[in-house]
Write a structure and sequence with these properties.
By secondary structure, this protein is an all-alpha fold. The chain is built from 3 helices and no strands. It has one domain. α1 packs antiparallel against α2, α1 packs across α3 and α2 runs antiparallel to α3.
Length: about 80
């Protein structure tokens, strides 16, 4: 069964939000590497914001681009 973009994008937003939250905790627990992680955390937050706005606007082209961007993140922390 194939998901629609309207189903898949919120799932990716949730997945990357959870990853971002894990990375925030890791950065807090490991201050010696926090500065390296903070840039990626900020990029994740930006991409999540873009995806949320695309959903809210119903902009299918932006939703597709945001979905592809979020899918690029692995679940390997």
């Amino acid at each position: 069964m194939t998901d629609t973009l309207a189903e898949a994008l919120p799932r990716e937003i949730e997945r990357i939000s959870a990853k971002r939250d894990r990375w925030i905790r890791m950065a807090h627990e490991n201050p010696e590497i926090a500065w390296e992680m903070n840039l990626t955390i900020a990029i994740m937050q930006h991409e999540i914001g873009v995806a949320v706005r695309a959903c809210a606007d119903g902009d299918v082209v932006e939703m597709m681009a945001a979905h592809e961007g979020l899918k690029g993140y692995s679940d390997d922390d």
